[in-house]
Amino acid sequence: MHTYCRVIGCPNPARAGTADGLDRKFCRSHADHYQRHGSPYRGSFTAAEIEPFRQQALDRLQENRDDRFVDNAVARVEGLYRRAGPHVEAFRLRGLSPADRAKAAWARLRERCVDPLRVIAAWLAVDMAIAANPQIRDDPEYRRVQAAKLVHRMASGTHKRWTREEPDPNRPGRRRTATTEMHVYPRSRGRVLRHIGADLQQAVDLI
Q1: Which of 111, 126, 102 is closest to 199 using CA atoms?
Q2: Computed from CA positions of residues 46, 52, 53, 55, in that sequence, does the dihedral angle turn out positive or negative?
Q3: b vs e for 42-69, b when ≥16 Cβ sit within 10 Å of the residue's Cβ?
């Protein structure tokens, strides 16, 4: 029963039919695709596909900022910011559970002072993009993961820059100032996205 991956046209066996894992539905390639995108069949929306919807959603939210449902959603997103705990640098996430990594993403959004309206607009943009494409099956998990990827991208990563004194190889006996930069971006995949997507769905449920 595990001879073939469930994706039509894929010639590979499901991972449970190999020594590579216990997945009974998909081969490694499609299992990884599912973890990254929320669907084993379709990839994520491109920036060109999602950006018009996101801008439209943000404009409507700003126009209706005094609406009680918008106000409720903003309050819930701000609640996610407050309950996220202390800010954790992106390079210190190793060893944390997916739930704690999701909280760290909300904390990074709080640290960067990301407007809650932008977070809400991410969900609405994905909602509109799915509705506008009849070829996309309305899968709740795909919706949550796609919105979570947008939010996770807003959270960005950790960026540090520092200077130090070091010997100048071109001028013996002299020293020069060297600048070092570090940019660390957390991986956008797996159960972390499911946690972020579920949190976001609850926050925007009324709107």
Answers
A1: 102
A2: positive
A3: bebbeeeebeebbeebbeebeeeeeeee
pTM of the predicted model as reported, rounded to 2 decimal places: 0.80
- How would residue 70 be classed by pLDDT, with cut points 50, 70 and 90? very high
Q: Closest Cα to residue 87, out of 100, 74, 73?
A: 100
CA distance 166 to 169: 9
Range with top average pLDDT, 16-30, 42-56, 93-107, 134-148: 42-56
Q: Is 173 left (phi over 0), alpha (psi -120 to 50) or beta?
A: left
- The band of 137, judged by pLDDT with boundaries at 50, 70 and 90, is confident
Half-sphere exposure of 128 (CA within 13 A, CB side): 17
- Rounded (to 5) percent helix, strand, coil in the chain: 55, 10, 40
Domain assignments of the chain as residue spans, ordered by start: 1-43, 45-158+183-203
Where is average pLDDT lowest: 74-78, 119-123, 164-168? Answer: 164-168
> Measured between alpha carbons, how far is 26 from 35 in angstroms, rounded to an integer?
11
